[in-house]
Amino acid sequence: MTQLSDLPRTPKLRSDNPEMIPKRLLQGMLVLVLATVALVGFAVLTGRDHVGVPKPSAVVRERQIILEGHSAQAVTVYNVDKSVMIDLPHGGFVTVIQSGLETTRRKFGLDPLLPVRLVKYQNGRLTIEDDLTGWSAELYAFGSDNKAAFERLLAQ
C-alpha cells in the first residue's frame, strides 16, 4: 500500500508524452491557414466584389444626436442644441452604442460629446454614423427591439 511519504511533493510540470498537441491537429490548422490565405489572395487578385456590404440606398430620414454616458447603464441623448431629448437611466442597447462610440473617439482624441448622425435608408437600414472617425453601426443588424430603440429617437 502506498503511503503519503511515497508520493511526490511537487506535481510534474512536464508531460512524459512528447506530443502535447497531436500532429494531425497541427497539420489541419496549417491546411486551414493556407486555404484561407489562398482564398483571400484569389479574391484580391481577381478584384472580386465585397460580400456582405450593404447596398447603397437613398436617405429617408437623418438626425444628429449627442450621446453622453453616465455609468455602465445610463445614457442621456441630446439634440444638437444641447437640449435633452431623453434621459435613460437604464439605456440598454443605446448605452452599448454610446460606449462603442466613446471608445472610438477616445482612440482618435476627440470629444465624445460631438454629434453623430442617425440615418434611416430607403432599403430599411438604420445606422448611426460618426463622420469624424469613420465609425458606424448597422443598428438593424442587432434585432428588432434594439433597432426600435433608435427608431424612437429618430421619430422624436
Account of the protein in words:
- With 156 residues, the chain is α+β, with helices and mostly antiparallel strands.
- The protein contains three helices and six strands, in the order αβββαβββα.
- Strand 4 and strand 5 form a beta hairpin.
- The mean pLDDT is 88.
Overall pLDDT metric: 88
Biggest sheet record: 6 strands, antiparallel
Number of helices: 3
Instruction: Work out the number of β strands.
Output: 6
Strand content: 15-25%
- Major sheet strand order: 3-2-1-4-5-6
Structural class: alpha+beta
SSE order and pairing:
Layout: H1 23-46, E1 59-69, E2 75-78, E3 84-88, H2 93-108, E4 116-121, E5 126-129, E6 136-138, H3 144-155
Antiparallel strand pairs: 1-2, 1-4, 2-3, 4-5, 5-6
Structural features:
single chain, 156 residues, alpha+beta, 6-stranded antiparallel β-sheet, 3 helices, 33% helix, flat
